[in-house]
Predict the structure of RND family efflux transporter, MFP subunit.
Amino acid sequence: MRNALKLVFVTVPLVAIGAGILAYIIANSPPPERITLTERATPVRSIIARVRAVTPSIAGFGLINPARTYEAIAQVGGTVDYVNPGLAKGAILPAGAVLVRLSPVDFNLAIAQANANIRAAEARLEELAVSEVNQTAALEIEKQALALKEADLDRAETLFAGGTVPQTVRDAARAALLAQRQKVQNVASTLALLPTQRAVQTEQIAVYRSNLETARLSLERTELSLPFAARVASTSVEVGQFVRVGQTAAVLDGIDAAEVEAQVLIAALRNLMHSTHISTDAVPLDPSAMTEALRALGLSAEVHLRLGQDVLTWAASVDRISDTIDQKTGTLGVIVRVDTAYSGLEPGRRPPLTKGMFVEVILKAQPASGVVVPRSALRDGQLLVADADDRLQLVPVEFDLVQDGIALITGGIAEGARIVVSAPSPAIPGMLLAVTEDRALMARLAAEGSAE
């Protein structure tokens, strides 16, 4: 009990003393320093909005084919007399070169036969003309003889009536008259047939002349000539070989122009049309309608051939649209024409565009103006913009073109605005930004967006 009381008497004074000291310290100490919370700026990168002209373009790939191909097909049969020494695969022959010549012997004989038939028919026609003159004169003579026979019969009838001559004399006169009438009828019939015979002979001459023209045409067709400069693709004929009608002696590819059927995405093609303010809803996915629409755009084209590290370029023109759409890949063939496929050749550096080369085709529309931004900066039709107070703003914009890594803004953004290209997460409108201008990106956009 005593120990407990001692503990109380010792502890209580100590606690009281400690409380007094603490109260004194609190009463005489300065108030605690207040800490003011400040807003933290989020670092972002930006570019300055600049209006530039951009060339809308799409790319496709395809194989080179000659714009024209000539098949040397025999139109007549015969034995080969001559084959052009240059008619070998890969060789280039000029326009007008004789490729193959067949033996003309049979056709020369046919021409001679036709000429002989014409001369014989013309002689027969002249014979008919002379015969007509002779028969006309003969008919006149026979008619005069008929008049005499009629007079003889009249006298015989008179004498018989008077009993001077017997009946036999009268009958003989009648028989002579009938015989003369028969002669007149025969001559008249011969004359009547002459116009028909002359018409038949005239038509026969026309047939013989047609045979002559056919023989001459066949003779011309014994020679197969090249209508335009071309490279030999294949040949299958030799001297002494018999060639049948319809047989192909050689195939040659024209060198004046080349074509490429580039496969392009239909969606990309429609976007290209949209960028030129042509309503894609008004253009059905029909090759003929698409062809007319592309011609209205005035598209230009380039053909690129990659040779190692080098890329060779040829100017081309959009010619037409392919007749089919690939449903599996969603692509449409756009056929472009290169009129300088064999121009500007440099051995070892710039080859001609020959059949089978795999090339890239770039289709370009007329340049369009707008603000060029990175494609990644466009989000759901909006851009992130830093205002004058470095606050984040979400601005709805209009755009006509999205290609490769850029988008072309045509409305909703003013030139000189600061467009945020590194979006903060989360992006809260009104948040404070620490803006850094990305000059490297601006230079790259200027290069990618420049109109050529």
Q: What stands out?
A: The chain has four domains: 44-54+368-448, 57-64+257-364, 68-103+222-254, 106-220.
